[in-house]
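Lab notebook, bench 4. Still working through the backlog of constructs that have no structural model yet. Next entry is a single chain of 364 residues. Request: give me the structure tokens for it.
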Amino acid sequence: MDEAIPPPIQGVALSLVLTSTILVATATILVCFRVFIRWSEGLLWWDDGLMFIGLIIHILDVHLSCKSAYYGLGSDPATLSEPLKLIARRYLTIWSLLHPACLVTVKTSVCVTMLRLTRVMRYIRFSIYALLVISILAFLLNFVSILTYCRPFAANWDSTLLIEGNAACAPPGAILIVSYITAGITIATDIACAILPAAILWKSQLKFKTKLLVGLLLSFGSLASVCTMIRTPYVKYYITEEQLYWMGMAALWSNMEIAIVLIAGSIPVLQKLMMRCLTCHKAVGVSPNPTGFVTFGSVPVRPRINRGGLNNPTDASFNISAMNATPSPHPWERLEDDTSARFLRSDEVELAGVSAPQLTEVRE
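Model written out:
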């Protein structure tokens, strides 16, 4: 077998390439739609920027894992030459540095989004801050441990440096301990990122069916913790001769984990796009009442005042002595007493979601 020719992509390597490509394409479309919707509404903020940065890092991460799969990641080591193993391990090492950076970026975006929705929820905000700090500390622990595992850094993929005595690496058990600790923290923070939004929605004044629907959307993000649980047992193969094959499985589930967080963080924002499409089918002049509608990743929509045909914006006030109104087809009743005469419309109008009589003329 020619040492310069990579083996055919099959088995785990093929699953890694196909699954990662499909998921990163889906995540790219949804995140770009999210950023566009928030930008068009003038609501673009740090959480959207962090989510977009996380997408860029994830695209690079998927590219590195696919390149590593092309040279042997996820393939049987017996079919690979030493030069191919070296190239595959090099791409894998760089991928292992970018993955925690991408994960902490998208989790920070989710935490910032939840902070926007909990400005008056003191205890939940404290939990979000704690979650944010723990995620950052886990990232630093993982990143620094990989960066300092071998000196020089090239010894992570070039074993000849160790054989010749030109490099030194930490004990293999050290990297395993750090990997298991960070995996446990990742699972806990993934679950927290799925539970906290549900707690926020439960305290909101939404209908039960709406809470249930949004809760199902948010529960999709809990699949990220499942991916972490599945990939954790493969960490022990990082320091074995079969590293490339089993780390192909770990890379597959890790890429799925990031893609799920990106998709789950963008789907609820797309509700606004769906609402716009639905309103196109409604009659002209009839608009849905958005009062109290909340989407994960946005602030509640403020209710609009229905002026009931009044021309002047100040006519919506009740603290004036006279106001002009356009002719109305609704019936009116004249109410009088000894000192005043008032004209009230017999029906009522909807004002900011609260029924209140509308005055048209007041004579004292």
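Notes after review: The longest strand covers residues 332-336. Residues 278 and 288 are 10 Å apart (CA to CA). Flag for follow-up if needed.
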